[in-house]
Design goal:
The strands form two sheets. This protein has a five-stranded parallel β-sheet. A two-stranded antiparallel sheet has the order 1-7. α1 runs antiparallel to α3, α3 packs across α4 and α6 runs parallel beside α7. The protein has one domain. The C terminus is likely disordered. The protein is of the alpha/beta class.
Length: about 200
């Protein structure tokens, strides 16, 4: 247990340093108009490098099964959500391809996340059918306009087991409207990953 905590603390330190180094140039891109970001390979190269370095400092061996099946054309990238590193893990897997995340509207209520998420994600408001439809329509318009991936955790939450949970209803509608390839990626982790993920979930992060 002590070694696990120590490793996690060391990981937090190096990830923090990584964040400090990448934050200034990434922030410059985030304040630019959306169309500039989507059309900039440099931006996605920077994001990709940030994710890769961050994942390296988790000290978690990661293996991606079926990497050759990751689409190189606009698609809906759907993955199960098991840990705090799922976002960089999934994003790193697609490389420098333009993408936009779908995020629960509840996340935008958090003061810190409210400052960041609007630049990288579209809120999905499921409080009513009408609001959900408007959210999904915005997603479809964005990915079609910029030829980008739509990145989503269709289970709508984080689960610490290997079960596939029920997808929220709007996901099916999005897939039909986008008429894109649905990519289901399976990420295989080292057995110790679950311990680390649980510590991250209940500890500092």
């Amino acid at each position: 247990m002590f070694l696990t905590i120590l490793r996690s603390l060391i990981s937090y330190f190096f990830i923090g340093i990584t964040l400090l180094l990448f934050a200034p140039p990434i922030s410059l891109f985030l304040i630019m108009p959306q169309r500039w970001r989507f059309n900039s390979k440099l931006f996605y190269m920077l994001i990709y490098a940030f994710y890769k370095v961050g994942l390296f400092f988790t000290f978690v061996p990661i293996k991606i099964k079926g990497e050759k099946n990751i689409p190189t054309k606009p698609a809906i990238i759907a993955a199960n959500h098991q840990s705090a590193i799922d976002i960089p893990l999934v994003a790193a897997a697609i490389g420098i391809f333009p993408h936009i995340w779908l995020a629960k509207a509840e996340l935008f209520k958090t003061r810190f996340l409210r400052l960041i998420i609007p630049f990288i994600a579209i809120p999905i408001d499921t409080s009513s059918l009408q609001k959900a439809m408007r959210s999904l329509l915005k997603v479809v318009q964005t990915v079609q306009k910029y030829d980008a991936h739509a990145m989503i955790f269709p289970e709508g939450g984080r689960y610490h087991n290997n079960d596939i949970h029920k997808f929220y209803a709007g996901f099916v509608l999005l897939a039909k409207k986008q008429a894109a390839l649905l990519s289901q990626s399976e990420f295989l982790m080292h057995p110790r990953f679950i311990q680390l993920a649980l510590f991250w979930h209940t500890g500092i992060l």
